[in-house]
Amino acid sequence: MSAKPPAPSSRDLARRRQYLRDQRRYKFYKGTWRSLALTGFAAGLLWLATSPVWLVRSPSQINISNNKLLSDEAIQALLPLPYPQPLLKIKPKDLEASLETHAPIAAAAVSRRLLPPGLHIRVKERQPVAIALPDTASPMQKIPAKSAAFRSPGLIDAQGYWMPRDSFQSIGSAASEPTLTVRGMQAGDEKDWQEMYEEIAQSPVKITVIDWTRPSNLILQSELGAVHLGPYGRGFEAQLVALDQLRSLNEKVNPEKVAFIDLHDPTHPIVEILQAASTPASPK
């Protein structure tokens, strides 16, 4: 039978009690200091938020970048910010959403700047590439409801995004209007427009008007005159190539006698002549 361990002495018990008291005291002070630190941190944040040092007092403290069509002042004026405004109370996401409600701004990224206090805003603008005119020959009630955006004159970018014609002027931009006009484009034509505009932008033949009012016959107004293409499709690129090859047409045919150029079949272009009882002429 094993012997029982000796009972702790009174000195050991006293040391044990002292150790436990020290531990409780340490935990108390540690908790107190932690609470004081958190309180101080919160107070510091409150001071930073309200301190005059961290105020956005005027639009001059807001830096704008990546803007070409809109001036810094025009973009600053769009911000729903009363001045002065504590920097830490400004919500960048709210400002981004507000800026993106304006048609000329496709996207915005807002960040706070601590030193010196202010904001930095990076924007992505929509570049208008054409004036969009409605088909005035069609009664308004016959235009699909989804085409409501195209019922009045507007501007479109290379992606086919429609915006009111005064979108830029209304917010103080002096950007000039595009030289290209498209008539009769409707909502739902955006994908075709993206491909069409890319080809037109690369063509050496200057195109000033795209008449899309009759989908069965796309008509271009070019430096060579009116060009009838038939329905828009995969052959559009070949049609523009054929049009480029006709650039010497003015040397062979009086431009005033040309009614239009028929490029339904780009391999066999036809020049319609303004003459009574005339027959189509095929350029050699």
Automatic annotation (TrEMBL):
Its main location: membrane. One of its GO terms (biological process) is cell division. Pfam families: POTRA_1. It comes from the Bacteria. One of its GO terms (cellular component) is plasma membrane. The keyword Protein transport does not apply. Signal peptide: none annotated. Keywords: Cell cycle, Cell division, Cell membrane, Membrane, Transmembrane, Transmembrane helix. This is Cell division protein FtsQ. It is found in: Membrane. Residues 57-126 form the POTRA domain.
